[in-house]
Design a protein that fits this description.
heterodimer; B: mainly alpha; two-stranded antiparallel ribbon; 76% helix; globular
Chain lengths: 119, 494
């Protein structure tokens, strides 16, 4: 029961670790960006889960409803999603430029090319 | 008093509004002019704000007339006014300096380049002035995203890799901060710093609060480039355009330190933070690691900007060391070094920028014998280096002196030795550059290098003069730092 009642938080932790692992282990820059996206999304779910009030209705003011869920986390996360999209866009734009400059988006190949630059 | 409260948000709003306007301006002159004007105005405003809060007053401005804690509040005391003065002051001096270098390094689409500069600075100022934790996250991302773009403007293709790796690490840091903010919000139901601080005592037993504090400190430590989380910094500073290196070296890590202190002291409360986690011991260990690793790696470098970047990691160590002493004197020393280091690194990166502009490369081989050909630039570098090492009568000496006295007063005599050893290491890497530039002959067949124009030298010398001025007249720096420390930890720490 307790395990199930915290299911949101389990989902958050699993997603967070998946994204984080993907970011650290993958050498491919696109996969790193995907990992980053998953990592950020997990935090959004954490925030939004906090807004649910048990027994609360959708937060639209109307007659006959006493308890509402908290709408503020949704608003905050709307902002955070915009920030996340901007981050992904910048990361992808950089990846395109890196591909143009190096001909690869793989960490190892780029490290080798960086060694050449240094010599 | 009330009029300055209404003017205070414009320190952030002027660069924030000027940024998009800048992106629309054509050519090379207009965007630069607007950026310079905006930052000069912001500088004058933040000087007025600091004057208004110098005696311990607090300015509070509620955005959209929504009273806090519901609305977003800008809350300014001596601590953030001091940091805002550093950011606006350094950028108001560096922007006039950077024009020819930007023309050289970023010849096209300067409108969007200066727009990014203004937005990055507006983000940093927003983090500094806001009293709302979610607002901190948003401004942190605004300034970071603009900074990634600016670093990628570097001419070397490695700038792209540096920007990408900084983006990955920086976003992880910001997301960690967001996790911490989520925990604070879940426990208190508020996002206003003062309001959270009032509500937190009811939640102090919660394990989640400890976790939140940990996430916030680690997330900001990435932004602060505290050892061992500093890997993004050296490449980012090395390959960014000269103006950007100087600007972010003088401002970005300082703002991260300030906001970390604001969270530790004002939101969580010093008494809680230092009891809930072994923060003092952890910060001290990491600070000493930063000081030694940064100085050692700086000695090893063969590129001037890279050397200065590693030196920044070491200097961040001194600031964090001051905090880890858990005394008011230590915290004042941290704030003092935060300000003084901004001045000295701006001067050092600015003179390095001039060398790169005139001589093309910044490898130690390119520097051989250049002192005789660019005497004014290299003298400025050497004098700013004296301040970095911490010899009297410079600003660097004052901050080292206060840090040493704070360590002695806290009965941590062994730290005195470590500070002196790392200062000697700084002497080694600065002296090495001076030796290569002045004592060694110019290589055979190397093209003659001309001294930079006086309009380029003047801002650098203003920064060097400031280093000496604040080494003698310490009323603003020591006074500001002491009051900043009191605003944060007054009454909690002895």
């Amino acid at each position: 029961m307790t395990l199930l009642s915290f299911i949101n938080y389990w989902a958050v932790i699993i997603l967070m670790m998946t994204g984080y692992y993907c970011m650290i282990v993958r050498g491919n820059m696109i996969k790193k960006v995907i990992g980053l996206g998953i990592f950020q999304t997990s935090v959004f779910i954490l925030f939004i889960s906090a807004g649910k009030v048990i027994g609360g209705a959708t937060p639209v003011l109307r007659e006959g409803v006493e308890r509402y869920s908290n709408p503020l986390p949704h608003v905050l996360i709307l902002t955070a999603i915009v920030v996340g999209i901007a981050t992904t866009a910048v990361a992808l734009a950089l990846t395109v430029r890196i591909r143009e400059a190096y001909g690869s988006i793989d960490d190892d190949a780029i490290d080798a090319a960086e060694e050449d630059d240094r010599v | 008093m009330s009029s300055i409260t209404e003017l205070m948000p414009f320190v952030v709003l002027i660069p924030l509004i000027a940024g998009p306007v800048c992106a629309l301006l054509p050519g090379r002159g207009l965007p630069w002019l607007l950026a310079t004007l905006a930052m000069t105005t912001a500088f004058i405003l933040s000087a007025m704000v600091l004057a208004a809060v110098f005696d311990g007053a607090t300015l509070s401005y509620a955005f959209g007339n929504w009273a806090p804690p519901v609305g977003i509040e800008y809350r300014v005391d001596a601590a953030n006014a001091f940091v805002a003065l550093l950011i606006t002051g350094v950028s108001a001096i560096l922007l006039p300096w950077g024009k020819p270098l930007v023309d050289d390094e970023v010849p096209e689409r300067q409108g969007s380049f200066y727009a990014l500069v203004l937005i990055a600075l507006a983000g940093l100022l927003g983090i500094t002035l806001t009293g709302d934790v979610f607002n901190v996250f948003v401004f942190l991302e605004i300034s970071s995203l603009a900074t990634y773009g600016l670093i990628a403007h570097g001419r070397d293709r490695r700038a792209l890799i540096a920007a990408f790796r900084y983006l990955i690490m920086g976003t992880v840091g910001a997301t960690f901060l967001l996790i911490g903010i989520a925990v604070l919000y879940i426990l208190t139901g508020s996002l206003n710093m003062v309001d959270i601080a009032e509500r937190l005592p009811t939640a102090e037993g919660a394990r989640a609060l400890q976790v939140g504090l940990g996430f916030i400190v680690v997330g900001l430590a990435i932004k602060l480039a505290l050892f061992p989380l500093h890997h993004w910094l050296p490449n980012a500073y090395t390959y960014a355009p000269s103006l950007i290196s100087a600007l972010i070296a003088a401002t970005a890590t300082k703002v991260a330190l300030y906001v970390m202190l604001r969270f530790i002291f004002d939101v969580f409360g010093a008494a809680y933070s230092f009891a809930a986690l072994p923060l003092a011991a952890a910060l001290m260990a990491l600070a000493i690691g930063s000081m030694f690793a940064g100085s050692w790696l700086a000695i090893m470098q063969s590129n001037l900007k890279r050397m200065l970047a590693y030196s920044s990691v070491a200097q961040v160590g001194y600031m964090v060391l001051g905090v880890s002493l858990t005394t008011l004197a230590g915290l004042s020393a941290a704030f003092l070094h935060l300000f003084n280091h901004g001045l000295m690194k701006a001067a050092l990166f600015a003179s390095a920028g001039l060398v790169a502009y005139r001589c093309g490369g910044l490898g130690m081989n390119d520097l051989r014998g250049i002192g005789r050909q660019m005497p004014w630039t290299l003298t400025a570098f050497a004098l700013a280096g004296v301040s970095l090492v911490g010899l009297p009568p410079t600003a660097g000496f004052i901050s080292k002196w206060y840090l040493l006295s704070a360590a002695v007063a806290a009965d941590q005599l062994w730290l005195v030795g470590l500070i002196l050893i790392t200062s000697l290491m700084a002497l080694i890497y600065i002296a090495r550059v001076v030796e290569i530039a002045w004592m060694q002959p110019r290589p055979e067949g190397a093209p003659a290098v001309q001294e930079a124009h006086w309009t380029l030298l003047a801002p650098v010398w203003v920064l060097v003069a400031a280093n000496f001025w604040f080494g003698i007249d310490t009323r603003l720096t020591v006074g500001g730092a002491t009051r900043a420390a009191q605003a944060l930890a007054g009454g909690v720490w002895p």
